[in-house]
Amino acid sequence: xxxxxxxxxxxxxxxxxxxxxxxxxxxxxxxxxxxxxxxxxxxxxxxxxxxxxxxxxxxxxxxxxxxxxxxxxxxxxxxxxxxxxxxxxxxxxxxxxxxxxxxxxxxxxxxxxxxxxxxxxxxxxxxxxxxxxxxxxxxxxxxxxxxxxxxxxxxxxxxxxxxxxx
Length: 166
What we know:
Layout: H1 7-23, H2 26-40, H3 44-52, H4 71-83, H5 89-105, H6 113-121, H7 124-130, H8 132-138, H9 149-153
């Protein structure tokens, strides 16, 4: 028998039945187990394993450590990205050791040593991740494709039209 129970509901039911199952005698365990199998759709051995295991609260893992790159590093990275004509993260990573001193030399950018070190030590994937939002906001919509005049005037047969008789 298949059921439409979600995993969370199954675990909730297992937590409710687990205490009764552990305290019951063998005859009662069999009855409880059969009820649990009927309700959840588990295989017998899986149901026994679930009911005998201790309850384990499943929660999503959250990021424990703070981000290494603050808004100052992100802002400087955006300036560098704009100066390099919005290249991808891999190319920008290779360009940073050349571009950063050039912008500092010409007084377009002034960075503290700590932020400078962070930017130069970023990986290409981190650069792409930090530039996600600016890329989305700066993305322009392509103009609609212009269909040539003859194509608009002359009726052309498409693949679907070949089956129909004229």
